[in-house]
Amino acid sequence: MPDTATPPPLQSALAEAAAEIDQTLDQILPPAEGPEAPLLAAMRYAVIGGGKRLRGFLVLEGARQFGVSRQAALRVAAAIEMLHAYSLVHDDLPAMDDDDLRRGKPTVHKAFDEATAIIAGDALQAAAFGTLAEEETHSDPAVRAELVRCLARAAGARGMCGGQMLDMLAEAAAEPLDEVQVGRLQLLKTGRLIEFAAEAGAILGKAPSAQRNALAAYGRDLGAAFQIADDLLDATASAAETGKRTGKDAEAGKATLLGLLGIERARMQAERLVTQARDHLDSFGDRAELLRDLAAYTIERKS
């Protein structure tokens, strides 16, 4: 007898969101003809298809709390996924992590070439900010400006890029980082973008500051738990399971909370962060149930 079980609500919602985000990305980045065609092909290869779409899903669910139009939320979700994809393309380069596999397929510099990968990453970052700035994303220019400002802060020198620099410096440091230093590194490198993704729906919905702050706090704790879960997967899962090379943190001698705390204590820390994240959603009631489920999924996932 065929299996007719209905997927859990979160899994269905994630799959639906991923399909909608990919459709939106396809519209924002249509295939091109002429000399620019290889660049657009590399951009589309990097961002369309595959990936958990966790950041985009956070935007959609945050926006749903305030009745924001799905089209507006999808454009912001697509912008964040383009920004995230740019960071992965550059992280995978030989000058950075030198990875050959991402989302179960060759990395962009392997599928195309190194120069094309650099340019494609640059162009994805530009497209992300351009998408946020367009009137189609929101009719209020103040909202669009706030989205651009907050994404720039999350992605820049005191956010994702700063965290990547700290990560590189840590590899060459004479002394290993302590728990506080590793926590800050991961907050910047991974957490800031997830925090913005959680907060973006409240910005779109012009939410009261208390609710906006609650979603941002949820995103901070979720991001920290997500990074610990990623470290655990890197240490315990196979490349076939994760779609990317595993064991690379230990191989490179990278500083992680897992390395400092050990597997069991790291798991306990992630569980505490998930509980904190869920607690931030109390004021949203039942309509935030998918966000609560997402927090638990963050540390239960296998890829």
Automatic annotation (TrEMBL):
GO terms for molecular function: transferase activity. Its cofactor is Mg(2+). InterPro entries: Polyprenyl_synt, Polyprenyl_synt_CS, Prenyl_diphosphate_synthase. Transmembrane segments: none annotated. Its EC number is 2.5.1.-. Keywords: Isoprene biosynthesis, Magnesium, Metal-binding, Transferase. Pfam families: polyprenyl_synt. Belongs to the FPP/GGPP synthase family. NCBIfam families: FPPsyn. This is Polyprenyl synthetase family protein. It comes from Falsiroseomonas tokyonensis.
